[in-house]
Design brief:
With 334 residues, the chain is of the alpha/beta class. It has 12 helices and 9 strands. An 8-stranded parallel barrel has the order 1-2-3-4-5-6-7-9, surrounded by 8 helices.
């Protein structure tokens, strides 16, 4: 069972974007020393406390600071880019860090309508993109495999072909279908859709094998994971994330989603309605001491047929975060 990390590059309360980058650098070096399999960055725009707008730039930083882990985007949100530009950027990354680059691709924009307009530079009708066509074109560019007569066949990327590890991201059957169609590895966002994670991850492997791809299917499940020495400490560490996600589903604005400190969260007074939403969100989380977390992960491995578990990083401070990853690494050895 492999373990990995999905970093949102949170700007912790009272800190700056510069400190967020320093925190990520420290976490990268720790994770690399603890034998994590891969370290990915999200793509979010128009957020106030998340500093991961450009995962490919963060990957370049990560590659220079690590020697062992794969580095990746979780993901490159395809509506925001041309396939050619994605291929160019990942050719550079693959040339810089051979055999360590993961290209995770998502079907959404990772943002709101205003940012979509700004990213696409149009105030007319939003560009309609066909994700399957985009993926196919990226594969053609990177592997230098355009069919004869294709209108983009003359485009060049120096040194091609390149073969980064390609993943399809998803939290629904749409991403699963594309992963199966193109023979891609599949990363399921269980923190977004915990009610269907087991069902759809099983379906991915069934469909993938039914398509007759040469390589074996490979699946990752991400969850909000909080590990501490005791169950009580883990529950406290998870509280800021639980409150933030509770507020999100109650329609809070971006600036209201700042992660509280652990101390502030411990003193938060929930209304009955908030408690009900918090309860509904429990499937997004794995929380506990090392033995409890290990048991939950092993059960997911068994029923969802996953090859890897990925921590969707929502720790509220750097000290708790580093301690959690150190404890989780000890589970890998067990």
């Amino acid at each position: 069972m492999n373990y990995s990390i999905l970093d949102y590059v949170h700007i912790f309360k009272g800190e700056t974007p510069q400190q967020a980058i320093e925190n990520t650098k420290e976490t990268l070096e720790l994770a690399d020393s603890l034998d994590y399999k891969r370290y990915w960055f999200t793509e979010h725009h128009n957020a106030t406390t998340i500093f991961s707008m450009a995962p490919d730039l963060l990957m370049m930083l990560a590659g220079t600071l690590t020697k062992n882990m794969n580095i990746g985007a979780g993901g490159i949100m395809l509506p925001n880019y041309s396939p050619y530009k994605v291929a160019e950027n990942f050719a550079i990354l693959e040339a810089a860090f051979p055999n360590r680059v993961d290209l995770g691709m998502g079907r959404a924009s990772g943002t709101d309508l205003l940012a979509k307009v700004a990213l696409q530079m149009t105030r007319e009708k939003m560009i309609e993109v066909n994700t399957a066509d985009q993926i196919q074109e990226i594969i053609y560019h990177l592997t230098k495999s355009f069919p004869v007569g294709h209108p983009l066949q003359a485009l060049k990327i120096p040194g091609a072909p390149y073969k980064p590890n390609m993943f399809m991201l998803g939290s629904s059957e749409g991403g699963l279908s594309l992963a199966s169609k193109f023979g891609l590895k599949f990363a399921f966002a269980g923190q977004l859709n915990p009610r269907q994670d087991v069902q759809l991850l099983n379906l991915y492997k069934y469909r993938y094998e039914a398509q007759g791809h040469e390589e074996k299917p490979y699946s990752i499940l991400s969850k909000f994971i909080f590990v501490a020495e005791t169950e009580e400490e883990a529950k406290l560490a998870a509280l800021p994330a639980e409150i933030s996600w509770m507020k999100m589903y109650m329609g809070a604005k971006a600036e209201e989603l700042q992660l509280l400190s652990v101390e502030e969260a411990a003193n938060y007074e929930f209304t009955p309605h908030e408690l009900a939403i918090r309860e509904q969100n429990k499937g997004r989380f794995i929380i506990g001491n090392p033995e409890q977390v290990k048991k939950q992960i092993q059960e997911l491995e068994r029923i969802a047929l996953i090859d890897e578990i990925m921590v969707a990083d929502f720790y509220a401070d750097q000290r708790t975060r580093l301690k959690g990853y150190t404890l989780l690494a000890e589970l890998m050895k067990g």
